[in-house]
Design brief:
Helix content: under 10%
Number of helices: 1
Shape: elongated
Largest sheet: 37 strands, parallel
Structural class: mainly beta
Number of strands: 42
Length: 532
């Protein structure tokens, strides 16, 4: 398997581990119907910019010497039948925003692709722009794809869309090199930087950004999606401007009143140094509720670097908020799927540096975030794992939840060593969820549950916990068939936890992952209890 831009790769098992399966990174924790397992699958993807066989005979090659504006290329003309544009390396930012108002068809999508005539095979350039020097990139200010739309009341996903079936491959959206950002406040760490506006897919279907670089965006989000079946894949999205008291998110999926944003995908991306990595947006008023059924957030690496951390009063805070922020969800038939992601390094927000306020949560589920599946993720070195509740008590009736947390590895919570006495909770919130077959290690507290919160925990391996947590006597959930390794003095037990086992000593297996973003690979080694 080749050309995978970031991989969870298992390099080493101890002798007691299960063998590695061909074509996947298989990390099996504890097996059997009484104990938990963890398996992190690898998603294979080749990022071919444009197959030569699909290049139409009338393909246009674009370079700054031949054209002086996007209009001159013919891309923007609705009367143009050309379906393929090959863009040579160069700085196109002086041409302004690339504003698309026409598209292609499923059989012949409108394609704008990186094209390097000097490459050995210019049609199969697989190197992400993040690995290229600026003089070898196709530098574009930003892209705005917009379509006409009509939203009949009662038909939330019936939209009339003119700009469908567009492919952007291998391009860099890096802002205007000549203009300082006028919007960033004087006290922002990014004051004086040059950046770009949001990249917007507005009322569009079947648009793809593949193998692109999006960076230094100055506005509220780097990419905003309104529409269906849009795909962001194999992209690097990084360094959103830090704006005190305001959010600047990598990717926002944006359903709203009378329309849904259905079946959009974010996969194989590296998302870092933004307020949130992915947000599914909603407003607080239920009459404006939109849903995002069939959303898939898969195989992404979401993190912060030291640059976005802030030291204040002996604590490490961040100019950011959460990993994934879900304000609405899917349906019972088409839930939101969050699978095979690595979420790491989230800390409580320092609003004076950036963000409107957050607790450093890997997965924040609130407002109307129903019908969510969280499976096979590695949630490592965060302040809080999953926050499941509502920011407004009046909206609690709108949360039916239906949230399943299955087969994840929760590891190394920030306060496990006493660094942050109010953090270090794996699961917190006022509602509930089904939590099964997970491995939880090294946290201050397993659960901090509100009154009557309905948490059902079963078949989990729980190790290195200082506290079981707060579980009110009025809870309606259950705890059963879990394995506690060196448990805290008080744990969920008795009649409420049939089948639980307590193990004082176990051998550990060292699992070694390779985190392979488009920068240097970063090994991550974790010791997991060998429960058999």
């Amino acid at each position: 398997m080749k050309n995978i831009y970031w991989i969870f790769g298992l390099l080493l098992f101890m002798a007691s581990c299960s063998s590695k399966k061909q074509g996947s990174a298989n990390v099996e924790g504890s097996l059997g119907n009484e104990v938990a397992g963890f398996q992190l699958r690898q998603f294979a993807s080749e990022t071919t910019v444009v197959p030569k066989a699909q290049v139409s005979r009338d393909a246009v090659i674009i370079n700054p010497r031949k054209f002086d504006s996007w209009k001159a290329t013919g891309i923007l003309s609705g009367n143009n039948s050309t379906s393929t544009y090959l863009i040579e390396p160069g700085d196109y930012r002086s041409w302004g925003e690339l504003k698309m108002s026409r598209g292609g068809t499923a059989a012949a999508p409108l394609t704008l692709s990186y094209y390097d005539a000097k490459a050995q095979d210019p049609y199969l350039e697989r190197t992400n722009p993040a690995r290229l020097p600026k003089n070898r990139q196709v530098l574009i200010e930003n892209v705005y794809v917009t379509g006409g739309h009509s939203h009949p009341k009662g038909h939330p996903d019936r939209s009339i869309v003119e700009t469908e079936h567009i492919r952007f491959n291998g391009l860099s959206f890096s802002g205007n090199a000549e203009t300082l950002d006028p919007h960033v406040r004087p006290n922002s760490p990014d004051r004086g930087k040059k950046g770009g506006a949001s990249n917007v897919l507005n009322f569009t279907n079947d648009v793809q950004l593949n193998n692109c670089l999006v960076e230094n965006v100055r506005e509220l989000n780097a990419i905003r999606i309104r529409g269906n079946r849009n795909v962001i894949s194999n992209c690097v999205i990084r360094n959103c401007f830090r704006i005190p008291g305001s959010d600047n998110i990598a990717i926002v999926i944006y359903p709203n009143k009378n329309y849904w944003a259905a079946n959009n995908r974010v996969e194989n991306c590296e998302l870092y140094n933004c307020t949130d990595c992915v947000q599914i947006h909603s407003v607080k008023d239920p009459q404006y509720l939109g849903l995002a059924p069939g959303t898939v957030i898969h195989n992404n690496d979401c993190y912060l670097t030291e640059e976005y951390y802030v030291q204040r009063d002996g604590q490490t805070l961040a100019a950011a908020e959460d990993g994934f922020d879900l304000k609405t969800g899917g349906t019972a038939a088409e839930p939101v799927l969050i699978t095979n992601n690595l979420i790491r390094g989230m800390r409580q927000t320092d609003t004076g540096s950036g963000g409107s306020g957050g607790l450093g949560v890997a997965l924040n589920l609130h407002l109307f975030a129903n019908h969510i599946r969280i499976e096979n993720n590695l949630i490592h070195d965060n302040r809080i794992g999953i926050l499941n509740g509502t920011v407004d008590a009046a909206l609690a009736q709108s949360r039916r939840a239906n949230i399943r947390v299955v087969n994840n590895l929760f590891n190394d919570f920030y306060s496990a060593g006493g660094r942050d006495a109010s953090g270090g909770t794996v699961i917190s919130g006022s509602l509930g969820m089904e939590v099964n077959n997970n491995t939880v290690m090294d946290a201050r507290e397993l659960i901090n549950a509100g009154y009557r919160a309905n948490y059902n925990l079963y078949n989990n391996v729980l190790a290195g916990l200082q506290l079981a947590g707060k579980w009110s006597g009025n809870h309606t959930g259950t705890s059963r068939s879990n394995v506690w390794v060196q448990p805290p003095s008080e744990r969920f037990g008795g009649e409420d936890a049939p089948g639980d086992r307590v193990v004082e000593r176990l051998n550990n297996r060292k699992l070694r992952f390779i985190i392979q973003p488009l920068t240097a690979p970063q090994p991550l080694e974790i010791s997991v209890p060998d429960v058999r």
